[in-house]
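The freezer alarm interrupted the setup, so I double-checked each line after restarting. Inputs confirmed:
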Amino acid sequence: MPGVLAGVLVVELSQQMAAPYICMLLATMGARVVKLEPPHLPTRVQGLFQPQHRALLDRGKESVDVDVTTGLGAEVVHRLAARADVWVEDLLPSAARKLQTDFSSLAAINPRLVYCAVPPFGEGGPLADVPADDVVVAAHSGIYGDQGGDGGPPVFVYLPLPSYGAAFTGCLAVTAALLAREATGQGQKVEVPLLNGAMAVQTGTFVLGPRVRPLGGGGGGSQGRNPVYRLYRCSDGTWFFLACGNSVFWNKLCIALGREELTADPRFLDAPWGIPPEHHGALTEVLQETFLKRPRAHWLQLLGHHDIPCAPVMSRGEFVHHPQVLHTRMVVDVADPLLGPTQQMGMPVLWHGEVVQDPAPAPRPDQHTRAVLHELGFTEAEVAALAVGQR
Amino acid sequence: MGQHPLDGVFVADLAMYIAGAYCSSLLADLGAEVVKVEPPHGDPFRDHGGAFQGWNRGKRSIAVDLNKAQGRDVVYSLVRRADVVVENYRPGVAHRLGVDHETLKGLNPRLVYCSITGYGGSGPYRAQPAFDPLLQAQSGAMEAQGGPDRPPVFLKVAISDYGAALLGAWGCALGLYRRARTGEGTRVETSLLNAAMAIQAAEFLLYPGRPGLGRLGDLGTDLACRLYHTSDGWMALSCATDQEWKAFVSTLAVAVPTETWWSLEAARRGDGPLGAAVEARICQHTTDEWTRALREAGVPCGPVQRSRDLASDPQALHNGLVVQHDSPDLGPIVQTGLTMRFSNTPGKVWGPAPALGQHTDDVLAELGYSVAQVSALRQARVVV
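Predicted 3D structure, all chains:
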């Protein structure tokens, strides 16, 4: 089956991580993605975003390296915008206006264009042009503070969650705008700042009110707070997560461990979610003492036998060999032109019965400049002029 | 301002817990009309009180016993009107309840049917129970957050649930887009497993010799990308260029041992004498003072807040990320607003999460059931 977005042309102008990921995901659905990589607009490489990530984030795209600040470069932008269906950009709003790649400039060229802005904080508002990236937005949005919990220091979360949240939200917003265009014939601007992405993955936490018991409250609890919904260590030093998410699983746990008397213990009557916090420690201690007596394999087998939800803590390197990951082809082999053989994520959203195809690798920077410029109708002399002083 | 992106789209939401429930709620944000079909005892995650509000905003609720034939008929009436069905049963359960794709497609060939499973619709783990932390554990997220030779850490953001909700909603939009162009219904799938990888996609790029991230325990990766203690709280810093790092050190006005310390490379190498000097200096002023001065100098930094602080955050308010509702279960609440802003087709905040069965009468009336029929169904405990 041809991709659902076949025939959709996406142009990307990005410095951070969410915008390239949006475009990569759109490419998995058949969209053609042209990535503009102007030499004066280097990718912002910070602690969480390494240059090698392009092997994943840019796979299946075409790379065009032109200086968009020159007159001829602006003409490239103009011709691409005229043909594009979707434009995805993550520059600070002031920088986009300066380059004249902001929404109003491009919508004037192509009223059917769906323009997706992914700035750090917003297209407007007090922080619109404040320098920021994933880490600054994660801090601002509460992800580090809530991970630390009440009374403890904040904890740096090593996954760039605002970027991932904004990337998935961006795909949804762009596709919804394409759908609306089917009805109205009009493009529009959609905004998915990283701050919004951060809130999109905290909607259960961010609910406040006099009668609300907050999910994000309570102490730090790096291994979990609820004694039957947390990490435990085993005698061989390995860890597993126990997830008795309802009272049925709690009762099964007591039976499996031969500790039926716990179900009648007045302190734990409202297990799992209603155990009063002052009794968490006592039950955690009982369970940790038990699990430290045998190796993990023993417990996983015993708990699995009783249909009690639990899973071993694994590394990413181990997970790619997980039988279910192999079965679903969520890991694919991609030969990257710069890194060589790699393993990468497969297709996260599938059509029923679809066979996962191996994705095309990321382009070398500048790989498609000439081809795309010719396609846009530039003469050989213009192409040569555009290519002057480049990589 | 025109219609909403999903104006006129009707969603029969058979999902519970987090991923499926929040998926449908996102469709409501885009203007779809969502009816949440709950079992008579309700979505088990109603126990989570406030959080349930965040995952079920903007829906109506009907409570129907799908184990009874008449209950099934109610759902079939809904499905005949529906454009989208969202479900997150364990594989096999939808079939047992008579709401599997094959059956519903027979009632409505234009249906976009979205399945969100734990591990996928087939394969050796398909029937395993799946909760977010189990996927966090297996997919390496907990181990990576803990770091080498330290215990794994349970992430408070339910990464696989939120990822699957967002990807599922995207799948529904893709299905509707495809239907607009071809006229055909379709089935789209995602899973907590897929989402756990997709929300760590860059981290899952594996190849021989991949460099690891730096690590300063629970505080960050290196001097240029970490959390710093100020005189009244915490501040995050994330320099990505020599220029930003130099502006940071200059603004701090700390003595730099040698000129080599001006480079980002030096900041990444280790904390040496400069690390201690920077920490001591930052402790001398408030987060607000440092944030103002450093932002003025072009340095990416900002306060470390709690999510609850967003309720009064000027930027969050500007972005429309904060809305107030009067919840039928919890009274006045503040919760997340629309996370997408459209210039022409605005999207919609319909209202709070519904009480269990709050709209059973209304929805059944819309489906053509008479008052007497509804009361008979209620008496027979088919609907609540």
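Quick read of the result. The two ends of chain A are 38 Å apart (CA to CA).
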